Amino acid sequence: MPMIPLPVVLALLLGYFLLIELTRPPPRNRFACAFLILLIVQLTIVGMRFGYGVERLGMVFPLTASLLGPLAFLSFQNPVGFSGKRPWPALLHLLPLAVALLLSRFAPTYIDFAQGLFSLFYGLALTLLGLREHDTFPWVDFNRREYVRRALWCVVVLIFVSAATDFVIAVDGWRSQGANIPNIVGGTSIVAALLFVLFILWHKFNANDWQSAPATRAQQADSAAEIALLARLDKLVETTQLHLDPDLNLNRIARKLGVPARQVSAAVNRHRALSVSQFINSLRIDEACRLLQNTDLPVTRVMLQSGFVTKSNFNREFSRRLGQSPSTWRNHNKVA
Predict the structure, then answer these.
(1) Counting Cβ atoms within 10 Å, is residue 258 exposed (0-12), middle (13-18) or buried (19+)?
(2) Does residue 12 lie within any of the structural domains?
């Protein structure tokens, strides 16, 4: 009776999450989508090759594997950096693919070792990026920053697992002519994919998500204490103009108030009927309206001074709040 290999099942599950990402309102992270697609391709190749003996796919596997590190790294870069007129820095990330093509033609026994080095390099680069970014990615929508931070560390683990796998495969190829490669590739691919799937599931069902606090905890919360916390938050915003900080996120607000992040989220949810991101963006839109109405600053400058980083996010939030674009609103409300 034909069986569906576990890597293929995991590929289908990743495909489901990819579909969710692709149907999410824009803007979308194209590199992250490409990274997910490549993971699906890799798992499908593993399942078909070692589950059904389709050996021809073995020629494609090193080439697709060489792109995992670059795509993972690019997934966490500011998309503004790729919108300029000189795209050549991004093209440097094709070097692992070029090396894989050359080695597969002239020195196939060294291809896994080279890929391990590239994976190690990208794993270290992502680690440094995560340490530098701490708990925020300014160009990411406020409500998804914590998710992106968690995703980065999950991907770092995947990349290091991939690097270790490549080195083990290289050593096995030199010592036993690759006799154990099916077990090595199959096992590590399943472990890596399960880790990634479990992370996505954990995020989807995590009770500490940004948008809301659990109803049971909401019922247990002290309403008076939450109102006092909101008064402190309002005072903090008034005195420091905290909402104008483009690097602001929930954890940073909580640290300034000296309380857990979920406590801030629950208080804003319950007493303002907003998520924290909606509350902050509302304050930013108020500031944008003030600047649009009373100054002649270009819309892009207004966007930056209001705390927004990307034009798409600014226009989306402005239209959601006021039902028209910033330029149109200015034309109707400009002080003479």
Answers:
(1) exposed
(2) yes
Residue-wise DSSP of 296-334: ---HHHHHHHTT---HHHHHHHHHHHHSS-HHHHHHHH-
For CA atoms 229, 231, 233, 239, the dihedral sign is negative
**In this structure, which amino acid lies at residue 78?**
N
224 and 310 within one domain: yes
Highest-confidence segment of 108-112, 215-219, 233-237: 233-237
Residue 210 has pLDDT above 50, yes or no: no
Q: Tokens at residue 194, please?
A: 């399960």
Q: 215: burial class by Cβ within 10 Å (0-12, 13-18, 19+)?
A: exposed
- For residue 17, what are its two tokens? 């999450």
- Counting the structural domains of the chain, the total is 2
**Residue 289 belongs to what domain range?**
215-333
pTM of structure:
0.61
Rounded average pLDDT over 35-54: 79
**Residue 226 near residue 268, CB atoms below 8 Å:** no
Question: pLDDT tens, 135-172?
Answer: 556 566 665 667 777 778 888 888 888 888 888 877 87
Q: Cβ distance 250 to 276 under 8 Å?
A: yes
- CATH number of the domain that residue 288 is part of: 1.10.10.60
Query: CB count, 10 Å around CB of 266?
Result: 21
